[in-house]
Design a protein that fits this description.
The complex is a heterodimer. By secondary structure, chain A is an all-alpha fold. Helices cover 80% and strands 2% of the residues of chain A. In chain B, strands 1-2 form a two-stranded antiparallel ribbon. In chain B, strands 3-6 form a two-stranded antiparallel ribbon. The chains are: A mainly alpha, B mainly alpha. The complex binds CIS-heme D hydroxychlorin gamma-spirolactone and protoporphyrin IX containing FE (HEM) (2 copies).
Chain lengths: 336, 444
């Protein structure tokens, strides 16, 4: 049963990056869109995202619940030592979700819209940035469970170049996913071109920040390269990601089929996550001095894992068909 | 303020904020389903307008409820890591099931809000009902988790270790039923009175009277049925608390001394130093009767509880009095309303009945907040009743005071914005929809 739970945890994280990421990305793209095109971008994205954003957001909740029910030590270590970035991320989530809804449901359209828009775009940037920071800090070996002074226990656990670089990388990935997603939702050729261009820019940004992540890892003494290239699976996954990247660019230039482009983009992100997580599986938190928290050794008692797994399996029977139908219906309707 | 008090205040604030939105999220879908049903059956356009107007308000509340709930699931770990480390696997069952309920709710909400004229009309109606049902289920589940903190079950506590975990038993602990029942009814009465009160005010102001009258009726019926059931379920809760948490009961009643023929103490100012209640109305023997159905059976007072295990008496007592007092007022209003619809139709057109509903607008929610204060403050000093102290569960991170200030500022600004948006929605009703009675038969 523990494997079922781990697979669900991983899938929830992946789906949150893919779907929630596209969701965040929408705001990021808006942030980097020229004034002239902003309104149009906004409308297109609203139509594409409004019906599904609440559901996208649920993957995060699932991941958190799996962590605190199944792996309480991991949940509490992260939430103690990464308290500050978590709180900032929470503020981002609150600001984003409410601003997004408020701007669409305000009965009067006036200057308040500007306020909502500002809040929405900036929090769309901050939230995935800190998500990246948190993920990076969990594996960076900077968390020191024995530290007693404030700075080393609660600040340096996450404030370093590696985490910051991963934060920017996450933002770029989100923007990229959103652009790819929205290409299919536009109704005219001009906008199609615009979003294709955005997708390329975001992808380029992701590659640049990806390189920065390696440099930062090197300077912080984090053996990222051996994690990624030290074993066969890592190499295969990274190669697959690179190949799909090349293919993707080719298709974007050639106006390839939409569905293939989307699948490729998703595949690429999946491979990156796979490469990173598989290397030190089952350890998901790596702390100072090479200590770690492992999904196997730090799992909760058997009965807890068992009922968690059952709850997840049972839930999927209800959720997955409904979710597919939701995505399918609203996609179909826009693409006519 | 020290960090420990700040952490408790921040938790209470976040939950107190969330509960308002979750009550609305649980109950409004049912109101909308009724209006929507009338629309599908009668083709009276006003019901479609009501459904749409409500659903716009609800979308705002849903989003705020969803993000504040997300904050809570992190906050449990951010503020109470020691608690979550041990409790997570035990009381996690309702949370893992709740994930499913929320997910279904979010999916159904997507269909409902954006599915007008897109799907088969009955399919669309059903998605609205699904939103309500899954909201209610998730409310029941999360209250079951809270009930476990009051009445821990499903594990053996041996030498500080939590062994032989049984998550199913933990979920169906002794307190879950009485708490979940009471909470569901409370959600209906709080939301019902709030909605009915707002529409009653608009009727009194003579704005779009036909539209507001129909909305008022739907909300008022729900509210009044709930208000009648509330004291009955409250009685079950009180008996239950008496059995499992005598300290909480004694604090609720400000019952300092164990007595045979214990009096029911109404109102008054409890003094925790002198252990007396001043200026209270005391009805001899009634407390004994309410708990044991016998006027002379003794009821344990706070003197039976070691001082370090006693909850704050004054807050718990005041909160309890507020809840019960408001419950009684709402019961009276409900009785008037039933007399009006069954016997005296003329009352329905009179102003005073509507005025009563206007006055009652915030009462349900105040009672909900007061009720939770009773439950949570009355459990102190325990976070898991009799097992773990709240003080031992708090995060070691210093500076929680600042985090409390920031969260407070955020919740205040969110409340202001939501109120402002709601005000705008209501003001615009006349402009967005054609709500005159003459349009009544023009549908389709
Ligand atoms: C509309 C709101 C409302 C109203 C009118 C009442 N209550 Fe209540 N009460 C709640 C809303 C509430 C609540 C907020 O929903 C609580 C908090 C925890 C819970 O399960 O329900 C609660 C808790 C609560 C508890 C503590 C339960 C526990 O700790 O497990 C008791 C003993 C009562 N109530 C009793 C009553 C009585 C005798 C009432 C008589 C009129 C009453 N309540 C009216
Ligand atoms: C939504 C309705 C709820 C409200 C308004 C509420 C209110 C409060 C308040 C006022 C406190 C502070 C008590 C004190 O320290 O004196 C508190 C504490 C707490 N509550 Fe609740 N509560 C609610 C539901 C829940 C639920 C469903 C859970 C858990 C599953 C929960 C878990 C906690 C925890 C962990 C604490 C901190 C520890 C403690 O003070 O005992 N609460 N809550
Ligand atoms: C008695 C207390 C509570 C009740 C009745 C309640 C009920 C609800 C309901 C009905 C929703 C659906 C959203 C909405 O309708 O606005 C919701 C949202 C949520 N609640 Fe609560 N809740 C309570 C306390 C808690 C606590 C203590 C937690 C965390 C541990 C929590 C976590 C969540 C989460 C994560 C969501 C977001 C789900 C989404 O995105 O749809 N809730 N809550």
């Amino acid at each position: 049963m523990i494997y079922v739970v781990i697979v669900y945890l991983w899938a929830a994280i992946l789906l949150y990056i893919l779907m929630g990421g596209a969701d965040f990305g929408a705001g990021i793209i808006e942030l980097f869109t020229s004034k002239r095109n902003k309104q149009h971008t906004r409308n297109t994205m609203y139509r594409a995202i409004a019906p599904i954003w609440e559901a996208n957001h649920m993957w995060l909740i699932i991941a958190i619940v799996v962590l605190f029910v199944g792996f309480p030590d991991i949940y509490t270590t992260i939430s103690t030592h990464l308290h500050i970035p978590l709180v900032i991320m929470l503020f981002g989530i609150i600001a984003r979700g409410t601003a997004f809804t408020f701007r669409n449901y305000d009965a009067v359209v006036d200057n308040m819209q500007k306020v909502y828009n500002k809040i929405f775009v900036y929090s769309s940037f901050i939230t995935p940035f800190f998500l990246g920071v948190i993920a990076a800090s969990a594996v960076s070996g900077k968390i020191d469970p024995d530290a007693h002074d404030f700075l080393s226990a609660y600040i340096f656990s996450w404030l370093n170049w590696f985490s910051v670089a991963v934060g920017f990388f996450t933002v770029a990935i989100c923007g990229f996913l959103a652009a790819i997603f929205i290409i299919g939702e536009t109704d005219d050729e001009l906008n199609r071109k615009r979003f294709i261009r955005k997708a390329k820019q975001m992808n380029l940004a992701a590659v640049v920040f990806g390189a920065l992540v390696f440099i930062a890892a090197h300077s912080e003494g984090i053996p990222l390269d051996t994690w990624l290239f030290g074993n066969a699976v890592g190499i295969i996954a990274i190669t697959a990601a690179t190949l799909s990247l090349i293919l993707l660019w080719f298709l974007l230039l050639k106006k390839g089929k939409l569905i293939i482009i989307r699948v490729l983009a998703g595949f690429q992100v999946t491979m990156i996550l796979l490469a990173i997580t598989l290397r030190h599986y089952p350890n998901i938190v790596i702390m100072k001095g090479g200590r770690y928290l492992s999904l196997m050794e730090h799992a909760g008692q058997e009965r807890a894992i068992y009922s968690l797994g059952m709850a997840l399996l049972l839930g999927s029977i209800f959720i997955l068909p409904a979710l597919f139908y939701l995505l399918y219906s609203f996609n179909k309707n826009y693409n006519k | 303020m020290n960090d420990f008090i700040a952490a408790r205040s921040q938790m209470g604030l976040s939950l107190g904020f969330h509960i308002v939105f979750s009550c609305i999220g649980m109950v409004m879908p049912f109101f909308m389903a009724v209006a929507h049903f009338y629309w599908l059956r009668t083709n009276n356009i006003v019901y479609k307008n009501i459904t749409k107007a409500w659903s716009k308000g609800v979308a705002i509340f849903f989003a705020t409820g969803a993000v504040s709930g997300t904050v809570l699931s992190f906050e449990l770990g951010l503020l109470w890591p020691e608690f979550m480390k041990h409790a997570g696997p035990i009381f996690g069952m309702p949370f893992s099931l709740e994930g499913t309920a929320f997910f279904i709710e979010a999916i159904a909400l997507g269909f409902f809000l954006y599915g007008w004229d897109r799907f088969n009309k009955w399919f669309h109606w059903v998605t609205g009902v699904v939103v309500g049902v899954s909201g209610l289920i998730s409310g029941i589940l999360v209250v079951a988790a809270n009930a476990w903190m009051n009445s821990p079950a499903g594990f053996d506590f041996i030498d500080g270790q939590y062994l032989n975990i049984d998550p199913i038993k933990a979920m169906f602990n002794d307190a879950w039923f009485s708490q979940a029942l009471h909470m569901c009814i409370a959600a209906f009465s709080a939301t019902g009175f709030a909605v009915a009160g707002i529409h009653a005010l608009m009727i009194l102001k003579k704005k779009n009277v036909y539209f507001h009258m129909q909305s008022f009726r739907i909300a008022a019926v729900f509210a009044c049925v709930a208000a009648v059931l509330q004291p009955l379920s409250g009685d079950i809760s009180a008996k239950d608390v008496g059995k499992r948490q005598p300290a909480k009961l004694a604090a609720m009643e400000a019952h300092f001394h164990t007595e045979a023929a214990a009096p029911l103490i109404i109102g008054g100012i409890p003094d925790e130093k002198t252990r007396e209640v001043k200026y209270a109305l005391k009805i001899p023997g009634l407390l004994s009767f309410m708990l044991h159905e016998d006027f002379t059976t003794p009821v344990d007072g706070l003197d039976k509880i070691p001082l370090e295990n006693q909850p704050p008496v004054a807050i718990t007592h005041y909160a309890f009095q507020i809840m019960v007092g408001l419950g009684m007022i709402m019961l009276l209003i409900a009785v008037c309303y039933f007399i009006a619809i069954l016997k005296k139709k003329s009352w329905l057109r009179s102003q005073w009945l509507l005025r009563l509903f206007v006055i009652a607008t915030p009462m349900g929610f105040i009672a909900v907040e007061a009720g939770w204060t009773v439950t949570e403050v009355g459990r102190q000093p325990w976070i898991i009743n009799g097992i773990m102290r709240t003080a031992d569960a708090v995060t070691p991170m210093p500076g929680i005071v600042y985090s409390f200030y920031i969260f407070t500022a955020m919740y205040i600004s969110l409340s202001l914005i939501v109120t402002f948006l709601l005000y705008r929605q209501i003001k615009m009703v006349g402009n967005i929809y054609d709500v005159s009675p003459s349009s009544k038969n023009q549908a389709i």
